[in-house]
UniProtKB/TrEMBL annotation:
The organism of origin for this protein: Takifugu bimaculatus
Listed Pfam families: Vps35
Protein name, per record: Vacuolar protein sorting-associated protein 35
Alphabetized InterPro entries for the sequence: Vps35 (IPR005378)
Lineage, opening ranks: Eukaryota, Metazoa, Chordata, Craniata, Vertebrata
Gene Ontology cellular component annotations, sorted alphabetically: cytosol; late endosome; retromer, cargo-selective complex
Annotated GO biological process: intracellular protein transport; retrograde transport, endosome to Golgi
Signal peptide positions (record): none
Length: 321
């Protein structure tokens, strides 16, 4: 009698097959690039990205596949950057990859080409970033959508408009810190919706398994908050008026205890102490609006612990009286 494979063995087999397919296509892609056959290379890149259309892999296995493909896409990005530096027309290619057959390969290629486009033509930055974050709405499958938007966030981290890095006369064209905040807040909102939606997939008997998988993926959503905290142009006023209010609105409205508890603690950890001191009232008001199953006590303790460390810091001003 043939032995049935365990779920873990089945996952390993599926992942191995997908990774092998990626290796074959990436090899062909690189060979075409070395021969300057860009269109053929893009076809192989599209075939490689087609592996990310799977619904058979667990989040952990999907992550490993995603990382393998991301590494190969970096090779394509470097090649395109060099080509555009030599004078190749970027606009034509950005239009061209929009005709890729399936939406997953199309959007990954659009992000890859779009980032190179922005580096080559900074005046297009505002429009391209808005274009990309909106286009990603085309993928509504929770797992595939989360990783696609994570790729967008990772690829754009060095091209988001920030304070002190652009000429005044080009501000309207290249975007400013407000455009970056809007970009990340929208990406965060969409990723959180996808993450929350995961709990409703599959049979009710698999609920515990889904919760575990969601825990494994939470860092993808939290990375948006990290990115917001890294923007130099987000001062305490902008944080109070735009960033925190936008984040808290999403957290409260999602009505999901797992998401709310994680994201409230994320806010506490990633933003500066001075910001928390200036926004205690809205933060605490939001705590009162969280789902009844959220352990609000733990959130408050985490905030108090953070501020207590700040108050006793030798190099800091302490908490004002």
């Amino acid at each position: 009698m043939p032995t049935t494979q365990s779920p873990q063995d089945e996952q390993e087999k599926l992942l191995d097959e997908a990774v092998q397919a990626v290796k074959v296509q990436s090899f062909q892609m690189k060979r075409c690039l070395d021969k300057n056959k860009l269109m053929d290379a893009l076809k192989h890149a599209s075939n490689m990205l087609g592996e990310l259309r799977t619904s058979m892999l667990s989040p952990k296995s999907y992550y490993e596949l995603y990382m393998a493909i991301s590494d190969e896409l970096h090779y394509l990005e470097v090649y395109l950057t060099d080509e555009f530096a030599k004078g190749r027309k970027v606009a034509d290619l950005y239009e061209l990859v929009q005709y890729a057959g399936n939406i997953i390969p199309r959007l990954y290629l659009l992000i890859t080409v779009g980032v190179v486009y922005v580096r080559s033509f900074p005046q297009s930055r505002k429009d391209i970033l808005k274009d990309l974050v909106e286009m990603c709405r085309g993928v509504q499958h929770p797992l595939r959508g989360l990783f696609l938007r994570n790729y967008l966030l990772q690829c754009t981290r060095n091209i988001l408009p920030d304070d002190g890095e652009q000429a005044e006369d080009s501000e309207e064209l290249t975007g400013d810190i407000n455009d970056s905040v809007d970009f990340v807040l929208l990406n965060f909102a969409e990723m959180n919706k996808l993450w929350v939606r995961m709990q409703h997939q599959g049979h009710s008997r698999d609920r515990e398994k889904r919760e575990k998988e969601r825990q494994e993926l939470r860092i993808l959503v939290g990375t948006n908050l990290v990115r917001l905290s890294q923007l130099e142009g987000v001062n305490v006023d902008k944080y109070k008026q735009i960033v925190l209010s936008g984040v808290l609105e999403q957290v409260v409205n999602c009505r999901d205890s797992l998401a709310q508890e994680y994201l409230m603690e994320c806010i506490i950890q990633v933003f500066p102490d001075e910001f928390h001191l200036q926004t205690l009232n809205p933060f605490l008001r939001s705590c009162a609006e969280l789902h009844q199953h959220v352990n609000v006590k733990n959130i408050i303790i985490a905030l108090i612990d953070r501020l207590a460390l700040f108050a006793h810091r030798e190099d800091g001003p302490g908490i004002p009286c």
